[in-house]
Design brief:
With about 260 residues, the chain is of the alpha/beta class. The protein is about 35% helix and about 15% strand. Helix 1 crosses helix 8.
C-alpha cells in the first residue's frame, strides 16, 4: 500500500467558463489575454454569458470571437460601435459590448465611437490602448506618445507635424449620453484588480439602462515596442500613465455607490 503523503494542492486559477479552451494567438507578454480573462470572469460572476453579445474589431483582437464562450459578431474596421448599436436596439435585453484597439476605435472608428456616446447608446466598450498599431506592423497610432518611435515615425512622434495623442476617455466623458467612462491599466496585479471592478461596473451600468459606458485599458505591445514583456510593463508604468492618467472621468450619480 502506498503510504506516501500527498502534498495539499491549492487551486490558484480556474479558467472562466466564459473563455473557450483555445490557445490564444497573441504575442508573448501582450496583455490582451489578461483583458479577455477579466471580461470572462465578470460575465461568469454576473451570470450573463447566455445574454451577452460581443462585437469583435479589426486589429490584433480580430479573433476575439474564438476566445469568448458567448455570442459574437464581427464588425468592419472601426464600425464596432455602430454594429453594437444595431444589435442592442434589436435585442435591448442583451448585454452588448465591443472590444477594440486604439487604431480601430480612435482612428478609422472615431466617428462611430463619438456618436455612439453622444446618442447615449446603452452599450459597453472595452478599449485597449497600447499606443501603437499592433497587427499591421507597429505604425504610429492616434494614441502614440510624443517622441515615441514607430515604424511610421522612426525619429519619434513630432507633435508639430503629426499632432498630439488623442485622449479618448477625456473626450467621451464630455458627452451627455455617457454615464461611465474610466481609464485603468493592466501593468500590475493591483491595477488588474481595479480593472476587473471597472468592467463589472460598466456592465452594471448597461444592465440598468443608464447609457454609454467605456473602460479604457492601458496595455502593452512588447513585439512592436521592441521590448521584453517585463520591460514593456515597466515602460507602460513610467511613460504611458503620465500621459494617460488612471482616473474616473465620468461616473453618473446612479452608479457612484455601487459595490461588489
Amino acid at each position: 500500500m502506498d503510504t506516501t503523503i500527498q502534498p495539499e494542492v491549492q487551486t490558484v486559477y480556474i479558467r472562466p467558463s466564459s473563455l473557450t479552451d483555445i490557445p490564444m494567438h497573441y504575442c508573448p507578454g501582450c496583455t490582451h489575454g489578461v483583458a479577455h480573462r477579466l471580461v470572462a470572469e465578470v460575465m461568469d460572476e454576473m451570470d450573463i454569458r447566455e445574454q451577452t453579445i460581443g462585437v469583435a474589431p479589426v486589429g490584433c483582437s480580430v479573433f476575439a470571437y474564438n476566445y469568448f464562450n458567448c455570442d459574437f459578431v464581427e464588425a468592419a474596421h472601426g464600425r464596432a460601435p455602430a454594429m453594437a448599436t444595431g444589435v442592442k436596439r434589436v435585442w435591448p435585453d442583451r448585454v452588448v459590448f465591443t472590444y477594440q484597439g486604439d487604431g480601430d476605435l480612435a482612428s478609422i472608428g472615431m466617428a462611430e465611437t463619438v456618436h455612439a456616446a453622444a446618442r447615449g447608446e446603452n452599450i459597453t466598450i472595452i478599449f485597449i490602448n497600447n499606443a501603437i498599431y499592433g497587427m499591421t506592423g507597429g505604425q504610429m497610432a492616434p494614441t502614440s506618445l510624443p517622441g515615441q518611435k514607430t515604424t511610421s515615425s522612426p525619429h519619434g512622434r513630432d507633435v508639430e507635424q503629426m499632432g498630439f495623442p488623442l485622449h479618448m476617455s477625456e473626450v467621451l466623458a464630455k458627452m451627455e449620453g455617457a454615464s461611465y467612462v474610466v481609464r485603468r491599466s493592466l501593468h500590475d496585479p493591483k491595477n488588474i484588480r481595479l480593472t476587473k471592478k471597472a468592467i463589472r461596473t460598466a456592465f452594471e451600468v448597461q444592465r440598468r439602462g443608464l447609457g454609454f459606458s467605456m473602460v479604457e485599458l492601458l496595455s502593452t505591445c512588447p513585439t512592436n515596442w521592441g521590448m521584453s514583456p517585463t520591460e514593456a510593463l515597466k515602460w507602460l508604468e513610467e511613460h504611458m500613465i503620465p500621459v494617460y492618467p488612471l482616473e474616473d472621468f465620468k461616473v453618473s450619480p446612479e452608479i457612484a455607490g455601487l459595490k461588489f
